[in-house]
Amino acid sequence: MKKSDFYYDLPQEFIAQTPVEPRDSSRMMVLDKKSGKISHKHFFDIPDFITEKDCIILNDTRVLPARLYGVKKETGAVVEFLLLSQHSQDVWECVTGPGRRAKPGTVFDFNGLMSAEIVDVLDGGNRLVKFIYEDNFYNILDEIGEMPLPHYITEKLDDKERYQTVYSANLGSAAAPTAGLHFTPELLAKIEEKGIKIGKVTLHVGLGTFRPVKEENIENHLMHSEHYHLPVETAELINRTHENGGRVFAVGTTTCRTLESVATKHGRIIEDDDWTSIFIYPGYKFKCIDSLITNFHLPESTLIMLVSAFAGYENTMNAYKTAVDEKYRFFSFGDSMMITEVE
């Protein structure tokens, strides 16, 4: 298939700049993956579509406040640092801008709380940066770091926690697993009261999730790699659910990619800890998930391709056209879509 097959026209004003309150009051499109029928609900209606035989799997990763601003000690110039991945105890791979000011050996100061030296320039222009500090590194990030919001969100986020899920636990993501932003503690409690089991995985979302597909033939696109962990209790829950005739609801494309990566690698769901660069697009045969809860994604992105693989291409593109017609809110702080077989 071609990249252009996944284009749709989205008016700029439909890109959500701020989250709704309360979290679960966002709208939710329900797409029957078998018939293609669409209904319009709210996220707090989720328990109506899930039975006590089913389970919900969440991604409990937590976003690093990974955007920092350093002052070049020699000149006072300000350079932005975006933490991508940790290479060793104090050495991180970072995107720096403007990059010309971040040459090897250059030292930067961060609010007097720590300093950093550029160690190396990597292929592609990213920098290896060694941070020097006395306090706890993550405490410093909490104090001076900003959330690495996607480029299409231009409004400042007043509350950092609003770009975290309420169940976030394992620090390490460069972006939020946004399908989970709609859950509240009260809604999770209501789901559990109904007898629906909740399991968790961890996939640390990389900024590659926003990398555009440049190849017109999508099969030539190279996916970024992300680290995941699927614990034994979640594997047992998924297997027990399927054995009892229940459905596995994956919350978000990151959860979907984790589960499908393990199922593809092992032929079944077991405890696993690894890296994945799985690319799911139409033609892929799903091996684990039965239903998907997700947001509305960018045109021509790998994420809308994943949704098309699960829901069917025609169903997906029609759902997106309907979402535009109905003035849904799009992307990270936008509305939700549940793709399932409506019973």
Question: Can you describe what's shown?
Answer:
- The chain is built from 6 helices and 17 strands.
- With 343 residues, the chain is of the alpha/beta class.
- The chain folds into 2 domains: 3-63 and 159-340, QueA-like; 67-144, Thrombin, subunit H (Beta Barrel).
- A 9-stranded mixed beta sheet has the order 2-1-17-16-14-3-12-13-15, covered by helices on one side. A 6-stranded antiparallel barrel has the order 5-6-7-10-9-8. It has a two-stranded parallel ribbon with strand order 4-11.
- A hairpin with a 3-residue loop joins β8 and β9 (114-121).
- The mean pLDDT is 95.
CATH superfamily of the largest domain: QueA-like
Q: Please, what is the average pLDDT?
A: 95
Query: The CATH topology of the largest domain, please?
Result: QueA-like
Report, as a whole number of angstroms, the end-to-end distance: 32 Å
Supply the CATH class of the largest domain.
Alpha Beta
Query: What is the N-to-C succession of helices and strands?
Result: EEEEEEEEEEHEHEEHEHEEHHE
What structural class is derived from the secondary structure elements? alpha/beta
- The rough form would be described as globular
What percent of residues are in strands? 25-35%
Using only C-alpha atoms, the radius of gyration works out to 21 Å
Largest sheet: 9 strands, mixed
What is the helix content?
10-25%
Order of strands, widest sheet:
2-1-17-16-14-3-12-13-15
What is the CATH-assigned architecture of the largest domain? 3-Layer(aba) Sandwich
Number of strands: 17
Q: What's the number of structural domains?
A: 2
Low-pLDDT sequence parts: none
The helix count comes to: 6
